[in-house]
Design brief:
- With 388 residues, the protein is an all-alpha fold.
- It has three domains: 1-78, no CATH class; 97-226 and 240-262, no CATH class; 279-387, no CATH class.
- The protein is 66% helix and 2% strand.
- The protein is built from 23 helices and two strands.
- A two-stranded antiparallel ribbon has the order 1-2.
- A hairpin with a 4-residue loop joins β1 and β2.
- α12 (186-195) packs across α13 (202-216).
- The longest helix has 24 residues, at 238-261.
- The chain is globular, with a radius of gyration of 23 Å.
- The N and C termini lie far apart (55 Å).
């Protein structure tokens, strides 16, 4: 594929043009192969750029799998403006981020962009009601029984997760989505995917939790001067700063309220105590705890969960002592970190630290141990076993 990307620009244009033609006008088999081509080739910036130049997103509007890669790669090139990405960004180099990398990049952009930020790919998607369409696809998937259901839902969630760089996307999640036989809130579909109601798949659950984290854990106070990823920041008056800060707070309060009204607290509490699937339970626990810690910035949420047995009877302290799977100590350290943060917000910093067995220092030590690779000489180990 790198050799193809190194071809003359005209050849690349013709290749992308033909693939888009297949996507829009050929038989189902041709559409399938064109979609697969874009799914793999979006790792290369030269293909992504040409795809954008030919209005590819609109033509790919109904293909969720392809959209997922468009936004994953777009966010990498967006964060490169801040000099924080370690991924290769050359036009002929492949870029394939994982969930953790994407979450880190979303967080970086949230911390560096204002509440009224505009980002071309997201603006275009919202112009075509793309976020609402993705939420409806997730809602419809409750009734599906095909083998591709998990992949479809996960891809839709991944797109929404990346779009959360733009705060106005949160408002779409708070809106009612009209379905043929019912009406549901967008956030309700996200929570359903997180708890495993739609499909029992750990990757789907983690993608849904990533959406929740990017929404409820977003910064309350955002930078003021940069409203567009394509432009440089500029100065604003103090009056406008107050307006933008208030706007940011109001948007967050709306998503917090929507999450609470759709049983989000119960869902996150259940996921914090999950033990299945055993290979992903520690990661799911950590993500759920992080989301609840972000949600606990709301006074109403703190009042509700502060009275629950999980916090009043020491159940959370028991949960953070040991991981579900010993091989997942690194994920468990993150669970401990966000559990401590959650307790500090609910009970107050000094009180929670006295009640918690593991302090921040102990968590740091546990993280060092989890990241340390243990190597040994097999012959020496055999001798040690024999002697003992």
């Amino acid at each position: 594929m790198e050799r193809i990307c190194a071809m003359p620009r005209q050849k690349i244009q013709e290749l992308v043009k033909y693939a888009l033609w297949l996507l829009g006008r050929s038989y189902d088999s041709g559409k399938c192969h064109a979609t697969m081509f874009f799914g793999f080739s979006f790792q290369f910036k030269v293909i992504l750029d040409e795809f954008d130049n030919q209005d590819g997103l609109r033509k790919l509007y109904n293909v969720v799998y392809g959209e997922s890669f468009v936004f994953q790669i777009s966010i990498i090139h967006a964060t490169s403006d801040f000099g924080i990405t370690d991924s290769p960004t050359g036009v002929v180099k492949a870029v394939k981020p994982n969930l953790e990398q994407v979450s880190e990049q979303v967080r970086t952009l949230q911390e560096n962009l204002s509440a009224k930020v505009h980002w071309g790919p997201v603006d275009q998607l919202m112009k075509h009601s793309g976020i609402s369409l993705l939420l409806k696809i997730i809602a419809f998937s409750y009734e599906w029984n095909n083998t591709g259901r998990a992949e479809t839902v996960r891809s839709a969630l991944d797109v929404i997760s990346i779009c959360c760089v733009v705060p106005k996307v949160y408002l779409t999640l708070c809106e009612k989505q009209k379905l043929p036989d019912q009406t549901t809130y967008g956030i309700n579909s996200i929570l359903g995917a997180a708890i495993g109601e739609i499909v029992t798949d750990a990757e789907v659950q983690k993608s849904a939790l990533a959406v929740l984290i990017h929404c409820v854990c977003a910064p309350i106070l955002r930078p003021i001067g940069r409203h567009n990823l394509a432009t440089q920041p500029y100065g604003v008056s103090s009056t406008k700063k107050k307006i933008l800060h208030k706007l940011s707070e109001e948007i967050l309060e709306k998503i917090w309220e929507a999450c609470c009204s759709n049983n989000g607290i119960i869902v996150l509490l259940q996921l914090m105590q999950t033990k299945t699937p055993i290979t992903d339970a520690d990661c799911i626990r950590g993500m759920a705890c992080r989301a609840l810690a972000g949600l606990a910035r709301s006074e109403r949420v703190r009042q509700i969960i502060g009275k629950l047995p999980l916090f009043t009877s020491g159940q959370l302290q028991i949960l953070i002592r040991d991981p579900i799977l010993q091989e997942k100590r690194a994920e468990h350290v993150l669970f401990q970190k966000y559990a401590l943060e959650l307790l500090e917000r609910i009970m107050g910093k000094s009180k929670s630290i006295n009640q918690l067995d593991s302090s921040l220092a102990n968590i740091h030590k546990a993280n060092v141990v989890a990241q340390t690779k243990i190597q040994y000489n097999e012959q020496q180990l055999y001798q040690l076993i024999t002697i003992s």
